[in-house]
Amino acid sequence: MSVPFLLDSIEPASNNADTQRPTPALLQGEILVETLSHSAWGGAVTAQMYLPLRRDRVWQQLTDYPRWVQYFPDLIRSEVLNPVVGAIPESPLQGCKRLYQVAHKAFFFLSIQVEAYLNVFEVVQQQIKFRLEKGSFTDFAADLKLQDAGVGTLLTYEVQATPTIPVPSIFIEQAIKLDLPANMDRMRQVLCGS
């Protein structure tokens, strides 16, 4: 896989852009979710939450990718594979990892299992980009961003996906919009140890 296109979209944050003031709703534990149109058969969602933990501590836990099965109940397998050969030297990218993930989801009247081989690019304590190598999706991309927010961390998770099974995007978006807040809340509970 060629990864130079990522250099344009991943850059270390400056000191000013690295600190964010969370809204009162976020500080009270609300998870903000916004759905976006993506494709006729896919969906895109952005979710944001506040974590009362320092960013370095959040980073350490989030980059323990096998642990992601604890964050997302539908995820039944998350395994780090061999690193991708040819990581970009002298770039903000901290190497490239390969992940294999499997999820099982009951969706309306269907019960489906999906799998994805993902390339993972990291900017230490700032950003993780997940890009589809192959799997049960026509396309899949997710970006996880961390910013200092007072004494805690603001986590922003953007995901867009089109499954190979043709389901109208409105259903995908609604399912994600309903599931994602509960999943993010579960992630916060695990990260915070409660």
What features would you describe in this structure?
- The protein has helices at 5-9, 24-27, 55-62, 68-71, 169-192, and strands spanning 32-36, 43-51, 75-81, 96-107, 110-123, 127-135, 137-149, 152-163.
- The longest helix has 24 residues, at 169-192.
- The chain is α+β, with helices and mostly antiparallel strands.
- It has a single domain, classed as START domain (Alpha-D-Glucose-1,6-Bisphosphate, Chain A, domain 4), CATH 3.30.530.
- The protein is globular, with a radius of gyration of 16 Å.
- An 8-stranded antiparallel β-sheet has the order 1-2-8-7-6-5-4-3.
- Strand 6 and strand 7 form a beta hairpin.
- It is built from 5 helices and 8 strands; from the N terminus they run H-H-E-E-H-H-E-E-E-E-E-E-H.
- 23% of the residues lie in helices and 42% in strands.
- The model is unreliable at 1-17 and 89-93 (pLDDT under 50).
- Output the helix-strand order: HHEEHHEEEEEEH
Structural class of the secondary elements?
alpha+beta
CATH class call: Alpha Beta
Largest sheet: 8 strands, antiparallel
Shape: globular
Mean pLDDT: 80
| Alpha-carbon distance between the two ends | 39 Å
Helix content: 10-25%
Give the CATH architecture. Answer: 2-Layer Sandwich
Considering the protein shown, what is the CATH homologous superfamily? START domain
According to DSSP, the number of beta strands is: 8
